[in-house]
Amino acid sequence: MARTDQQRKGAQGEDAALEHLRRAGLTLVERNFRCQGGELDLIMRDGAHLVFVEVRRRKSRGFGGAAASITPAKQGRMTIAAQTFLLRYPKLPPCRFDVVAIDGEHIEWLKNVLD
What we know:
alpha+beta; nucleic acid binding; Restrct_endonuc-II-like; endonuclease; nuclease; 5-stranded mixed beta sheet; single chain; Trna Endonuclease, Chain: A, domain 1; hydrolase
């Protein structure tokens, strides 16, 4: 199935975020996890922690930039997806939600953004 230009740009942003997180010592658990209630761009391991990562990419920081584009509705879908993913674990690992915001060529990693 052909990918749109927007999908290709999104995948490039995820590739850049993944490389950034790997250089910081995180390991990939799963990419593009989807379930009925939502989706997660990257699921990473940071030591004992399972990290659910939302990747956002914008051309610039205008209008608040990439991180500001994560709405409360999106946060809810991320939470549902994380809860669904965690059903495969008999004992829950410590978890957190991170954001990798890409504004132009600038990458910013925001840790533990949701409670």
